[in-house]
Amino acid sequence: MDNHLIITWHGHACFSVTYDQFTMIIDPYKDNTVPGLTPLSLFADEVYTTHDHGDHNYVEAVTIRDNDRTTPFRLTRIPCAHDTSQGRRRGLSDILLFEREGLRFAHFGDVGEELGEDKIENLKNLDAVMIPVGGCYTIGPEEAKKLIDRITPRVVIPMHYRTERYGFDELQHLDEFLALCDDVKRYEESSIEITPETPAQTAVLTYE
């Protein structure tokens, strides 16, 4: 079986990930919670959320297919603070680490803390990472770049940021993160296929 993924961005921190006809949705947002984004109506085999906030946990937007497919991945939840105060302001948010032989990827939810070495070791050398870069509620551009440099993933997909079209006003603009990266590749579509041959890059997906 080929070790390749199709990752599709649905805006904010919501993604679908497909592997061998199995599709998962991660962090669907509730209608009218994120400025500029339209309501979600998605289909999948499973849905996962990183934490219990409305812009990440609206599982009602996902219709679960009626079949016997089970996830081909082993899931490890890594709890992290949603802020720089050990979670006292915004609680916790999990990093979701998905693994199978020859393939590892992670969704970083609303991580807001600087990760310790114990967590860093589990997250090194991922094939793909979906990471917030907008600050305010999560780590910002500089913190995200520092974290990426520590874990050295192959494909970095930024999320949870602001542009002229969408995103919370209090978030930093995507360009502030991209200015720190020297391997940016912009896609005209919302999906990226990740294969063993996919080169290292910061992949900017287009919201459709």
Automatic annotation (TrEMBL):
One Pfam family cited in the UniProt record for this chain: Lactamase_B_3
PANTHER family per the UniProt record, alphabetical: UPF0173 METAL-DEPENDENT HYDROLASE YTKL
Protein name (Swiss-Prot/TrEMBL): MBL fold metallo-hydrolase
InterPro entries linked: RibonucZ/Hydroxyglut_hydro
Residue ranges the record marks as coiled coil: none
